[in-house]
Amino acid sequence: MGAPTDLKYSNDHEWVRVEADQATVGVSDYAQGQLGGLVFIELPSVGDALIAGEAFGEVESVKSVSELIAPVSGEIVEVNTALEGAPETINNDPYGAGWIVKVALSEPAQLDELLDADAYEQHIS
Amino acid sequence: MNYIPVTADERERMLERIGVSAVDELFSDIPKSARLSHALAIGAGHEELEVQTLLARIAANNRCSDDLICFAGGGIYDRYLPALVDNILQRPEFFTAYTPYQPEVSQGTLQAIFEFQTGICELTGLDVANASMYDGATALVEAALMACRVTKNRSRVLAVAGLHPEKIETIQTYSAAGNFSFETAAEIGPLLDETVAAVLIPYPDYHGIIADVSPLIEAAHQVGALAVLDCDPVLLSLLKSPAELGADIATGEAQSLGNPMSLGGPGLGMFACSEKVMRQIPGRLVGKTVDSQGNDAYVLTLATREQHIRREKATSNICSNHALNALAAGVYMAALGPEGLREVALSSCAKAHRLHDELIGTGLFRDRYPQARYGYEFIVDWSGSESFDAVYHDLLEAGILPGIRVGERGLLIAVTEKRSEAELGRFLEEVHAHG
Amino acid sequence: MAETNAYRGPRPTLYETSRPGARCLRCPPASVEGIDAVELFGPYARTTPAALPEVSEIEIMRHYAHLAAMNFGVDTGSYPLGSCTMKYNPRINEWAARLSGFANIHPAQPDSTLQGALALIHELQKDLSEIAGLPGVSLQPAAGAHGEYTALMVFRAALKARGDARRKVIIPDTAHGTNPASVIMAGYEVVTIPSTTEGLVDLEALKEALDSDTAAFMLTNPNTVGIFDPQILEITAAVHEVGAFAYCDGANLNAILGITRPGDLGFDALHINLHKTFSSPHGGGGPGAGPLCVSAELAPYLPGPVVACDEEGVFHRVTPEKSIGRVRTYLGNFGVLVRAYAYIRSNGAEGLRAVAEQAVISANYLRVTLGEILPVAYDRHCMHEFVLSAARLKSEEGVTALDIAKRLLDYGFHPPTIYFPLIVAEALMIEPTETEPVAVLDALAEAFSNIVEEAKTDPDLLRQAPLSTPVRRLDEVSAARSPHLRVIQTFCS
């Protein structure tokens, strides 16, 4: 699956979908493929601050643990708690039902530092 | 005697194949100045016959429970070891195997541990038990650390008075690293607040007492701390389970489930917890799954908690479990079954209470806690006129290890199902001789 | 239902075959008369019995015979598991540990009744001290990781006594995972430094990282790629230069027994895995023992008790004067200590040196032989182990180190350690130990050769492997997604 062109990407393989001053964050298809079958996710809570470049949760596969690194800063307004019971959703639908958090952006200018789909494809090739 | 199967000729052929003329060339990376120029000063090797003679002689320099009737406990008990347990333990497929990282050829170890985990869950009533820890003390340390992780920003651990003194010392050593603070108190009420991660509660305590633990568990929960019960697995067959009492974690020294005393090591650290805190459980866990053909199979699971993956973020640095001791415990629990284990515990309690009453009846011992409930271990104080040192010494001479000394006059006595009427009689007779 | 091997295939647990009323052992009935749990414990009496299995003795024996047949041990076949030293477990050691004078002694017995056991411990302390080249020894740690932790706490206490609290511990990126975990447990911060392309300590990076805040540097030497770091004297000197301690992870001690001593190399502390180097069995994961050996400066801080001998030749348990305290109950895993003691007496000085020599010869022999089949990660003389890389095979044939490992099971060999150390792609780490006959080493090489051939002709076969084991590859993902960690018993009639 190619990286959807309507999203922005971080070097740490998170994607961001921007709608007005709110952003949805998830992990890329490439990243879920590298991780393999996910078995556990540790999610933040609504109201937590997201700080670009810092970890906001963890995903585990059978033999690895990876931190989720925030691509942008803001306050978490919604968390996809359905993932707790079914982390494999990230494997099956990384850009759709596998979204992780929604954030009220505090520094929208950070979006300019993210990669577009082409640049991200370059980054992972 | 060494165990190298390679002959001198074969060794030469191997060196030739490697392309060196002498073995020293293979050690050329070791700085010359640091190489040993002399043989290690540990003496020459011996043939098996000599080693056998030597070890038999050393062993004979100990007085063991064959000729020193054991009334000592404190977590390590002289219980009857069913003949089948050691027979199974001596199967080399079990004892010469490594940790079951290759599940396709380790189903024996894995399933045996899965059954052990099940038995510990049944005894404690809790949802999850790990594959074991080193001993009861390190299990308690791990419980303290786990509670800090579960309660996130908390790092105070309280212990109710009465924990085994060596367990307290062990927790103190670990707390010196600064990851958590540790306090112990007779009355924990005033110390409890929302900075407390765990309350450690003995059940029974070091003096054998089954205290009223429910209010302590409740008090811990009221401030959001975890309640950890430190238990005796054999007595759990008669006692309300930690789960029923509301405990979050149960630990204990489980040597007495089918393992010899062996000077107190290797022991068997028992560790169980409720499902809601399971993700933070330390140590190895065996889970059931299927293989590619759909067959039932077992595997080490939730490995991401462990240090080979998480490294500095691991839930614990513990790598080994005491798998062989856990195997013994699994066999023991099956060999006794629910009724048999109750009988072992009841028989021990019956004998302990009889010995207790008769010792008090001599007028030479006083009950330290006259109103307390106890199982098969209790504490009395010598009240005779002779010095207790002399009495203790005479009892040893007469072939009786009367218990663990606690202070100048105190004696902590454990009676297992293995002690015969005649042995109890000898103990009393010797005591009477000092009346 | 999938086809299974009736003898070795899956078998229900005893909890599932339990039948109400079936019994194995009982207590003599007279001993339990006239006593009742409610009377003893009142509100704390159990009302629902623990649902342990109800089975007869023959069922138990057949059950465990069956389980044993599904296991692979050193006695089953060659076990070249790198870093684990899966050597033969001599039977005299097992016999000794089971002597009643060792198995049936209680730790609360007074020293006067334990002179044999204390003498054995005292002598083992001396033996290990001599082998390590370090004067202080505590036999208390129960395993390697426990020894690491104990050492770090000893460092902490010694630094505190110097009035010099420090915060960090340096570890190379090739270290065993227990090293960083132990550092955290001991309240220090981990600083990881990279290794050279040869897998050796990057001396410049180390010097860069070392400062007055460094408590210790932890190193496995010989290292985890099987190479003895030739810069070792410079490394330990650099560590001492900033007032830090040099720690040796003794996992690979087997290669240098009687050849050199960690103390002579400048290390201040070493843990020894008795279940690796000194032949006590691994037991399917333990019990082991991880004695800690330390320098004279550190000896007063060791956990107590240790065993001392007075002028009259009487042995006593004593606590070192500035001891960090206990790290567990009692004296250590005594049963394991007895086995190691017997092993040292059997081998003696010459025997232990022969162990190291043969372990190194056998590893190099296999390295040369296997190097013709798969590339060796560091193609030079190795110590007791070496690392192969299946990276090329993976890119050419799509066959991984894991596939090779699993296929080896079909050839009757336990696989090597795979994917460790992390710095070698598709790593296969091989440690034959000194106790394998040459014919077995040759057979292992032949198996590798066949497997690499199969990778070219029938790679799918390797991806399906193993085919002949009691169970096939496992679904580890569902095991972790919905953990099923005990028998769930149903109480329907």
Describe it.
The complex is a heterotrimer of chains A (125), B (435) and C (493). By secondary structure, chain A is an alpha+beta fold. Chain A is 19% helix and 35% strand. In chain A, the strands form 2 sheets. Chain A has a 6-stranded antiparallel beta sheet with strand order 1-2-3-9-8-5. Chain A has a 3-stranded antiparallel beta sheet with strand order 4-6-7. The radius of gyration of chain A is 13 Å and the shape is globular. By secondary structure, chain B is an alpha/beta fold. Chain B has 2 domains: 69-80 and 344-432, Aspartate Aminotransferase, domain 1 (Alpha-Beta Complex), CATH 3.90.1150; 85-330, Type I PLP-dependent aspartate aminotransferase-like (Major domain) (Aspartate Aminotransferase, domain 2), CATH 3.40.640. Helix content of chain B is 35%, strand content 15%. Chain B has 12 helices and 15 strands. Chain B has a 7-stranded mixed beta sheet, with helices on both faces. Chain C has 493 residues and is of the alpha/beta class. Chain C has 3 domains: 14-69, no CATH class; 92-346, Aspartate Aminotransferase, domain 2, CATH 3.40.640.10; 356-478, Aspartate Aminotransferase, domain 1, CATH 3.90.1150.10. Helix content of chain C is 37%, strand content 10%. In chain C, the strands form 3 sheets. Chain C has a 7-stranded mixed beta sheet, with helices on both faces. Chain C is globular and about 75 Å long. At the B-C interface, helix 1, helix 2, helix 3, helix 4 and helix 5 of B face helix 2, helix 3, helix 4, helix 5 and helix 6 of C.
